[in-house]
Amino acid sequence: MEQTRSEILKTIPYGFYITGVVGADGEVNGFTTCWVSQVSFEPQQVMVAVRKDQHSHELMEQGGVFSLNFLDTEQEDLARRFTRPLESENGAVGGSPYKTGETGAPLFEEAFAHLECRVVGKLEAGDHTVYLGEVAAATLDRPADILTDLDTPMEYGG
């Protein structure tokens, strides 16, 4: 039964994003995430689930802001890079340059679109925390199709 539930849960399609965070001391980080969804029209809000054992979870708690950086169908390598711990230096995380957004969250330049959010709520969900973010700013650098788990052998779920 557990195996069946896991296999069914793995069939839910997800986009891949780099979630950017900044800590109270200005430390910047990013990580690949796929558990993301819009949850409200007015105000515009999204939710993102973050593993509690990630360093980025601590930064999200401190900074209270995050960015969603949208990846296109040709950026699987970038999504894979951000699945592991990366160093932040000289305006880049793991070699990926970013600019600082209106909220202070990093906007990764390789992404085709960005949402900046302020955390307005959270819910403990087992080994993750679900953060509710109100959209504060948005940029679209170019039209593109979002990278999803259907485009790659990568999976996160089950």
From TrEMBL:
<dbReference type="GO" id="GO:0042602">
    <property type="term" value="F:riboflavin reductase (NADPH) activity"/>
</dbReference>
<dbReference type="Pfam" id="PF01613">
    <property type="entry name" value="Flavin_Reduct"/>
</dbReference>
<dbReference type="InterPro" id="IPR002563">
    <property type="entry name" value="Flavin_Rdtase-like_dom"/>
</dbReference>
<comment type="similarity">
    <text>Belongs to the non-flavoprotein flavin reductase family.</text>
</comment>
<feature type="domain" description="Flavin reductase like">
    <location>
        <begin position="9"/>
        <end position="149"/>
    </location>
</feature>
<keyword id="KW-0560">Oxidoreductase</keyword>
<dbReference type="InterPro" id="IPR050268">
    <property type="entry name" value="NADH-dep_flavin_reductase"/>
</dbReference>
<protein>
    <submittedName>
        <fullName>Diguanylate cyclase</fullName>
    </submittedName>
</protein>
<dbReference type="GO" id="GO:0010181">
    <property type="term" value="F:FMN binding"/>
</dbReference>
<dbReference type="InterPro" id="IPR012349">
    <property type="entry name" value="Split_barrel_FMN-bd"/>
</dbReference>
